[in-house]
């Protein structure tokens, strides 16, 4: 196990650094301290060919100019918040508007666009990056001084574990996730339409035309949202279901997980033989299939296009503050917010 770090770029006079975690089997995870962005995950296919399985760039300028949250930590609150405001303890908080009058993924200067302090920890069987950031009271409109910590740990079981911790000096809302776009074909050789996804989920959240939750939680039974026995992503792209159509012909939906920490999310690409198992303690996962990716930039010599990657964002539900029937994302003063998600890579 080892960690290699180097200068990645400069931003407003500050150095942005890159860190590569390497295990004894040759798996590598590279991240930068700007937005805790995961820029590469290098794993073998069934023939032993090691390739990158996430979307990312080689320069900071590309992240600043083009990135739709590639590989980043998003927060304080992942997903959309309606009208960019919420009421808490009788006070209305006005958030930054960055999505058609709504608030998305923490706002204009969310966790994805700041430089985090990093500490490297090396052990015999794992290596970690400990990212820390203090989000001040009022930042992007949120209440409370929030001390946030995100830990990336790579071990010799080819597992990447992401642990989140946060504590605020005021009652607030917190919902943090990683926004990596996965493509298990390796080096973006193909799109993700023939990836097969299995989800232990029997309910999903209905969306309106602004991709905001309506508050209704629908059964997956007899729909293309039923991933319980596995289905290709393509099914939702060609579907005439109004929920798929309004999402841009695909998925951009929160699913309620029926199990936790028990292989509840399983993604596979049969051609490469690569598979990803995700386990989490979060109540839901947002499946986004890259429906909005535009073709006006390149990703390491590959022209960006729709369905080039998919996100599996383990989190609380978007806009939960406006829906009492959703699991709450409110965190009490001095209460520690904690969450852990594990990504295990293997080949079949």
Q: Would you kindly provide a written description of the structure presented here, covering whatever features stand out?
A:
- With 348 residues, the chain is mainly beta.
- The protein has one domain (2-347): Beta-galactosidase, Chain A, domain 5 (Distorted Sandwich), CATH 2.70.98.10.
- The chain is built from 3 helices and 30 strands.
- Strands 11-12-13-14-30-24-23-18-21 form a 9-stranded antiparallel sheet. Strands 17-28-25-22-19-20 form a 6-stranded antiparallel sheet. A 5-stranded antiparallel sheet has the order 1-2-3-4-5, with no helix packed on it.
- The chain is globular, with a radius of gyration of 19 Å.
Helix count from the secondary structure assignment: 3
Q: Which overall shape is indicated by the principal axes computed on the Cα atoms?
A: globular
What proportion of the residues is helical, as a percent range?
under 10%
CATH architecture: Distorted Sandwich
Radius of gyration: 19 Å
- Could you tell me the number of beta strands? 30
Active site: 179 (proton donor), 313 (proton acceptor)
Protein name: Aldose 1-epimerase
Catalytic activity: alpha-D-glucose = beta-D-glucose
GO biological process, one term: glucose metabolic process
């Amino acid at each position: 196990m080892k960690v290699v770090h180097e200068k990645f770029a400069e931003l407003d006079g500050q150095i942005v650094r890159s860190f590569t975690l390497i295990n004894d089997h040759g798996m590598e995870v590279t991240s930068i301290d700007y937005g805790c962005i995961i820029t590469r995950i290098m794993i073998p296919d069934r023939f032993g060919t090691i390739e990158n399985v996430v979307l990312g760039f080689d320069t900071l300028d590309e992240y600043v100019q083009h990135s739709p949250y590639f590989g980043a930590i998003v927060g304080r609150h992942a997903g959309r918040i309606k009208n960019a405001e919420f009421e808490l303890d009788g006070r209305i908080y006005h958030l930054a508007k960055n999505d058609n009058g709504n608030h998305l993924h923490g706002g204009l200067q969310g966790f994805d666009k700041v430089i985090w302090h990093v500490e490297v920890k090396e052990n015999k069987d794992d290596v970690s990056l400990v990212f820390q950031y203090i989000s001040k009271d009022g930042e992007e409109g949120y209440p409370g001084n929030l001390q946030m910590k995100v830990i990336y740990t790579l071990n010799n079981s080819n597992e990447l574990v992401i642990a989140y911790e946060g504590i605020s000096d005021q009652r607030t809302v917190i919902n943090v996730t990683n926004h990596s776009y996965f493509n298990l074909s390796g080096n973006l050789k193909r799109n993700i339409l023939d990836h097969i996804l299995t989800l232990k989920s029997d309910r999903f959240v209905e969306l309106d035309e602004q991709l905001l939750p309506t508050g209704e939680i629908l059964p997956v039974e007899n729909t293309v949202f039923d991933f319980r026995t596995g289905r290709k992503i393509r099914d939702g792209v060609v579907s005439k279901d109004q929920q798929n159509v309004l999402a841009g012909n695909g998925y951009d939906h929160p699913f309620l997980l029926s199990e936790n920490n028990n292989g509840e999310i399983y993604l596979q690409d049969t051609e490469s033989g690569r598979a990803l198992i995700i386990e989490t303690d979060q109540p839901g996962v947002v499946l986004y299939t890259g429906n909005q990716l535009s073709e006006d930039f390149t990703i390491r010599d590959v022209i960006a296009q729709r369905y080039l990657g998919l996100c599996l964002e383990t989190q609380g539900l978007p806009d939960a503050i406006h829906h009492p029937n959703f699991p709450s994302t409110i965190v009490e003063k001095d209460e520690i917010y904690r969450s852990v998600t594990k990504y295990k890579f293997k080949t079949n």
